[in-house]
Every structure is written in structure tokens, then in C-alpha cells.
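Project outcomes to date are best conveyed with an example. Our students and postdoctoral researchers have been running inverse folding experiments weekly, and each run begins with a structure described purely in C-alpha cells. The record below, which covers 350 residues, was selected by the lab manager from last quarter's runs and is presented without edits.
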């Protein structure tokens, strides 16, 4: 007897196949970040006519290999160059958080939410991080999750093509390491060790543990000169498909139509925030003498995995871009709650 049409396995196979085909089509068109964008668009289109879902392990597995691929770009000299840019990364992270505070007032007017919820909807701190902080502050977690997801989608669909086609590309020699050859036993050992590092981070409630654990391992091995293997491009492409498909499964008809006003507010405020942070990135980059395109991507209000993938796909100084987003993630955990308290006290949330 054949499996029912709605069985989870069948849904996973259809969704994954559609996502891979969408990514392959975009790759043939030479679209920047093709595998992720194509998978996301194809999955979202499929979701309007039938159930879609990805296996629960797909995104974590993709993030493990993505984390390794990003971490191994930090050779000793590259790590030193990134640490030299730490003051600029700290400044960029603080300005990004404060920019969210400014955009929150626009979001309040457009969406009709309270100022507290608008604040957590507008700060570019990642979907998981901002949802957790919103819950602690007793803001609307559902509203924050939707708005933050829409922001990531806006950035993923706009920044890769704009940077790939329009942005000036600088000299990334200080932030570029030689590519390592693939040795499968070493790669599998790295993946297993990365998983072991990810588990305690997950238990501690750290956002993106599946990426951060392997990434830390990759940095340690690359910077110390003991890197056993590189990560082949097809695995990074597969990670893009898993991430894109997972994002696409969220874009169901009910998700996009049930909160029309909120979705429109998220789109508009995300565009304004992107423009504001781009202007700040250009100014800071010019003063600091850092590559302009990497600065724009480093300050972009997208999620850390998505922006790091974009940097890798476009070869825009991956360690520098990742350094900016890691710094922002840490600052969001340390500062967003305090800034929210101060803003509420002084009536800055409307």
C-alpha cells in the first residue's frame, strides 16, 4: 500500500526536491546567493498550493557545515586583522541597535503596535534573539517573530543582488585565507566535534548554536595552523538549500495574509533600516579604511547565517562580515534589554 499523500516523509521529499530545483535554477541564472534564494522562493510558492515542511535536522545540519566553512577562513593573520577592526565592529553593533530604536517609532505608526513591541520588531538582532528578549520584556512574541522574519527576507532578497552587481569591491587580502583541500576523514571528524561543541551552547539557550560551535572550532583549527580539511562547495550549497527552504516554509498564505498591516509595516521599516545602516556603513568604512562592500554587508540588518553566507558566496571578506555579526549578536544580548528599559523610562518608545 502506498504512503498517503500527506505523510511527513512525502512532504519532506517534495519540499526538499522543489527547493533544490529552485536553487539550481537560480544558480543557472547566476543570481547571487542562488541556492538559498531559489530554495526559499520555490518553497514559498509551493506552500500556497500544498503543505510544505523540511526535516527537523536539515537546518542544523546545514549550519554545522556552514559554521565550519566560515570558521576555517580565519587563518592566524586574518584573525589578527579582524581583531584589529574590533573597535569598528563594536561601534557598528551599537549604532545598529540604536538605529532600530529610531525605526521603531516608524513601525509603531505603520503597524499600530505599542512602542515596546515595535522596539523588539525593529532592532536587527536576529529572529531567535529578539523573540527571546521580547518574551522577557512581555512584548508580543508572535508580532516580533513575524516582523523579524520579514526583515530577514527583505535583506536576503535585496542585499546579495545589489552587492553582487552594484557595490564597489575593495581589497580583501587582509581578510582572505588560502583555501584548504578537502580530506573527508578530517572533515567528518570536524563535523562531529562541532556538534559536540554545539550541544552545550544549545543547552545554555545561545542563538544559532549549530553554527557557532562548529565556527569556533574552525577558527581555532585555522588560526593555530592545524586545519585538517576544507569544506567543499557542494556542502555549502546544500546548507544554502536547507536554510532557504526553512525560511520558505514560513511564507504560507496564512502567514502573509493574516497580518497584512503588520507585514507591510515590517517591509517598509526594514527597507528604511537597511538604507540607514548602509549609509552608516559607508561613512564608517570610509573613515576606518575598511572594504566598503564588506562593511555594508557587515552592518546589514540580516541574520548572521544569511549574511555570512552572502559574504562567502560573493567573496566579500567573510571573516570581517562574520566578525561584525558576531559582535552585534553579543551586544544585543548584553545591551538590548538595558536600552529598552532606558528608552521606556525616558518615553522614547512612543
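After processing, the design step wrote out the following sequence:
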Amino acid at each position: 500500500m502506498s504512503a498517503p499523500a500527506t505523510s511527513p516523509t512525502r512532504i519532506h521529499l517534495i519540499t526538499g526536491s522543489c527547493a533544490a530545483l529552485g536553487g539550481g535554477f537560480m544558480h543557472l541564472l547566476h543570481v547571487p546567493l542562488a541556492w538559498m534564494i531559489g530554495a526559499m522562493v520555490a518553497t514559498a510558492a509551493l506552500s500556497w498550493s500544498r503543505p510544505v515542511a523540511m526535516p527537523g535536522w536539515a537546518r542544523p545540519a546545514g549550519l554545522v557545515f556552514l559554521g565550519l566553512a566560515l570558521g576555517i577562513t580565519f587563518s592566524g593573520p586574518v584573525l589578527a586583522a579582524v581583531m584589529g577592526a574590533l573597535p569598528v565592529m563594536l561601534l557598528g553593533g551599537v549604532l545598529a541597535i540604536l538605529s532600530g530604536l529610531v525605526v521603531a517609532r516608524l513601525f509603531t505608526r505603520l503597524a499600530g503596535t505599542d512602542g515596546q513591541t515595535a522596539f523588539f520588531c525593529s532592532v536587527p538582532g536576529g529572529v531567535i534573539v529578539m523573540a527571546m528578549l521580547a518574551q522577557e520584556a512581555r512584548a508580543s512574541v508572535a508580532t516580533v517573530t513575524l516582523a523579524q522574519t520579514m526583515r530577514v527576507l527583505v535583506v536576503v532578497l535585496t542585499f546579495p543582488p545589489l552587492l553582487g552587481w552594484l557595490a564597489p569591491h575593495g581589497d580583501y587580502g587582509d581578510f582572505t585565507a588560502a583555501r584548504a583541500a578537502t580530506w573527508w576523514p578530517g572533515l567528518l571528524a570536524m563535523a562531529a566535534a562541532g556538534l559536540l561543541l554545539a550541544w552545550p551552547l544549545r543547552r545554555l539557550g545561545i542563538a544559532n548554536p549549530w553554527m557557532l560551535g562548529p565556527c569556533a572550532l574552525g577558527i581555532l583549527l585555522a588560526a593555530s595552523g592545524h586545519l585538517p580539511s576544507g569544506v567543499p562547495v557542494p556542502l555549502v550549497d546544500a546548507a544554502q538549500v536547507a536554510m532557504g527552504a526553512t525560511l520558505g516554509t514560513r511564507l504560507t498564505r496564512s502567514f502573509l495574509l493574516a497580518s497584512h498591516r503588520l507585514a507591510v509595516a515590517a517591509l517598509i521599516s526594514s527597507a528604511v533600516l537597511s538604507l540607514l545602516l548602509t549609509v552608516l556603513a559607508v561613512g564608517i568604512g570610509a573613515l576606518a579604511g575598511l572594504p566598503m562592500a564588506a562593511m555594508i554587508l557587515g552592518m546589514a540588518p540580516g541574520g548572521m547565517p544569511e549574511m555570512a553566507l552572502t559574504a562567502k558566496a560573493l567573496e566579500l571578506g567573510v571573516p570581517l562580515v562574520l566578525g561584525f555579526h558576531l559582535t552585534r549578536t553579543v551586544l544585543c544580548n548584553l545591551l538590548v534589554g538595558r536600552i529598552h528599559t532606558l528608552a521606556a523610562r525616558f518615553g522614547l518608545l512612543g
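Residues 260-288 form the longest helix (29 residues). The mean pLDDT is 90. The training component of this project remains on track.
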